[in-house]
Target: mRNA (guanine-N(7))-methyltransferase
Amino acid sequence: MMNFGYSKPANSFVASLSPYQGQASLAASPHSSPSTRYTWQDSTALCPHHLVNKRFPLDATRSAGGQFPATSHSLFHPVAALKIHTPTGVTRNPPSPSPPFVQGSHHLSLIPPPQLLNRTDLSPVSSPTHRANLRAARQPLPPPPPAMDNTAVAEHYNKRKGDGRQGRKRSRIYRMRQFNNWLKSVLIALHTRPGYSVLDLCCGKGGDLNKWVEAGITSYVACDVAELSVKEAANRYNRLSQAPFRPVLLVGDCFGVSLADFVPSQSRFDVVSCQFAVHYAFESEDRARMLLKNVTDRLNPGGFFIGTTVDANVLVRKVRAVDGDEISSSVYKVKLDERFATKRFARGNAYGIRYFFTLDQNVEDCPEFLVHFPTFKQLALEYDLEILMQCNFHDFYKEFTADNYDDYRNLFRTMNVVDETGTMSPDEWDAIYLYTAFAFRKKGKPSAGAPSSQVDAKARPPVSDEEIIFMQQP
Model:
């Protein structure tokens, strides 16, 4: 059985960190007892200034009052993941917080999290369904699904109609969309400097263009498999009054075709972004490798690869906690491919684990694939990409709305992530829990960028449909 991090009695979570200030603190879970022992464990991440890092031998035992010895690190000291060991020998991940809640106009706080025993999605080890799956472990494993015709994904996104600003505000997932935009804005700000050059893989309709303009980048190349989406990205750019760059837009499958022959030969990138799309690459190892090849081929040493994707740990844990092969709420539905209805996955084969995803009226039964992140990290190392951060969206929210991130906390409020009562619907918050953010760095020293005074934002000629580059015949 493949270990996604939820099949063993003891699960782990990452310690509460303030990595961008070079500090790390050990935070006690409200569900732990004073005798709970906390031990630093190895992790495979490498960057010294993000949420997860590697190999820091430290044993920290709580005092009777629940306090930890003071621990801090310089900005360049590696940090590790923290595991919990309770006297019973059986541990589970701490619960996710409730939806965010804003009191007044300036104070951001969390509703107290639900008790662990009320979170069935976090208790797969003791569930009857999970025990039945373990008993069936010796049965023959299902074959992988057949290769997916990638035109299905392109057709899916080509058929999606824009619903306009007012339509988006009426959507049941409006706050979720705003949260996603806030998170991407923060992720971009953390890894981008003025003067940087960006490659945007799976750019969709160009929804992040304004974020890149705000970041002060001076070169932008974008690619997507859906032709109509790329044309809409061009239209969105043309509606900008001014920008510090003029984009190069491509249509093609960046998981199946090398970009080397289509991206201008002089183009080098400081950041590669792939938002909400890596799960399409995990149909096969070949496609995952092509993604990483396209990421690293023109990425400068020290450059960043950032993105968001489905959190396989959370998704599978939720599916295993219920009878049947489907989970759903008022805003989303996830159904495993019939080949994986037993909720078992072949050891040593992290690819082709297909499910079908529906999100409100925007995505309907779209085929996606689980991203086994340990496999992704190991594969990325072959392309000189070292993991900096992998962080569930809930944890990302907790980290970057903390007191030491005033700008990001204020942005959270001004982007209307929460409603007039200061929160969002529980179903939206639950759907947000399905996602994770990540960042890799190519070995080497990052570029210093350019002074913001040298970034020239001005009106530029519009991009015509004839200028769009087709990586293969439409």
Remarks:
- The chain is about 25% helix and 20% strand.
- The chain has two domains: 1-94, 151-470.
- The radius of gyration is 22 Å.
- The longest helix spans residues 174-191.
